[in-house]
Design a protein that fits this description.
321 residues, alpha+beta, Ribosomal Protein S5, domain 2, Alpha-Beta Plaits, 2 domains, five-stranded antiparallel sheet, globular, binds (R)-mevalonate
Length: 321
């Protein structure tokens, strides 16, 4: 018999500047993207024998009692229940996401965050953002190796954040709205792999990579100042420079280079890959009046999907085009 329904969601995210270097203690900036969401729905059922976890997009259904510890959905459930000090309810927890999978927009962290919130709603509790973020980080570590923690932070807080690993995140207000065109390559690129490759390169040539990370940190600091001043040509130029350093680190790809060039030629202030790289997304900073032109150019250059997103005080919201 149906007993009760609890639904919760969490947004995707975009890293503005500082990916990869952030794993090595340098600062990064990221914003939530609310137009893509992960949703978790808990249906508590009398008489059910287990908690079934259904990943509807993947066509997978697993019983919590027999799910292995490497199952990230089951792990999100277990860690949340431990936090809430509750035994598992019986019924079904179904998870659905519109965030591109392994596309650099935080799909895994958003699914875990939504699961945490749905279970908290069932328990009649609210999990503070810092605790939810820490819990999601534990799940991220299963598949991610050495995540910096920026993805779980921006998603669990649901606000733009200035992030330095090991320090409390600083949510920040964006005084002047700016516009991004997000171009998805449609190519899934697991962050674990790009982060692992950068680690190998860093181990092989630590001096060079520490230098690259320092240079990126300089750009991120300058980017924050440009963003606070509303100086979009400057912020755009910093995006291009950040992209060049990411390419030097080996995490760009021909399709990403092509999209960045297309954005430049179409009049974007700046463009760069966002997230782990190799696949995933390019973000282009644009004048709102140039957004459509840049979006068309990105489409012609091979983008699989485009979002045009204003980034404003609380969040990034927009329509999927
Ligand atoms: C992934 O969204 C961002 C990376 O910097 C990895 C991390 O911070 O854990 C590439």
């Amino acid at each position: 018999m149906l007993h009760a329904l609890y639904t919760a969601s969490a947004p995707g995210k975009i890293i503005l500047m500082g990916e990869h270097a952030v794993v090595y203690g340098r600062p990064a900036m990221a914003v939530p993207v609310h137009q893509v969401q992960a949703t978790a729905t808990l249906t508590v059922q009398d008489g059910a024998s287990d908690l079934w976890i259904a990943a509807t997009d993947l066509g997978q259904r697993t019983a919590l009692s027999s799910a292995p510890p490497v199952n990230p959905l089951a792990q999100a459930v277990r860690l949340t229940l431990t936090f809430l000090q509750r035994a598992a309810p019986a019924g079904e927890l179904s998870v659905h996401s519109t965030i591109p999978l392994a596309g650099g927009m935080g799909s895994g962290a958003a699914v875990s965050t939504a699961i945490g919130r749905a279970l908290a709603a069932w328990a009649g509790q609210t999990i503070p953002a810092a605790d939810l973020s820490a819990l999601v980080y534990e799940v991220e570590r299963l598949h991610h190796g050495t995540p910096s923690g920026i993805d779980n932070t921006v998603i669990a807080y649901g606000q733009p954040v200035w992030f330095v690993k090991g320090q409390p995140p600083q949510p920040f207000a964006i005084p002047h709205t700016f516009w991004l065109v997000i171009a998805s390559t449609g190519i899934a690129s697991p962050t674990r792999e790009t982060v692992g490759d950068v680690r190998q390169s860093w181990l092989a040539d630590p001096l060079r990579f520490e230098g690259l990370f320092d240079d990126i940190a300089g750009l991120v600091n300058a980017g924050r100042a440009a963003m606070l001043a509303g100086d979009w040509p400057r912020l755009g130029a910093l995006f291009f420079q950040n992209q060049r350093l990411l390419a030097e680190m080996g995490v760009s790809a021909p399709i990403l280079d092509r999209l960045v060039d297309a954005a430049r030629l179409a009049g974007a202030f700046g463009a760069k890959l966002s997230g782990g790289g190799r696949g995933g997304n390019v973000i282009a900073l644009v004048e709102p009046s140039a957004a459509e032109t840049v979006a068309d150019a990105l489409r012609r250059a091979g983008a699989a999907a485009i979002f045009i997103t204003p980034v404003s005080a609380g969040a990034a919201r927009a329509a999927l085009l």
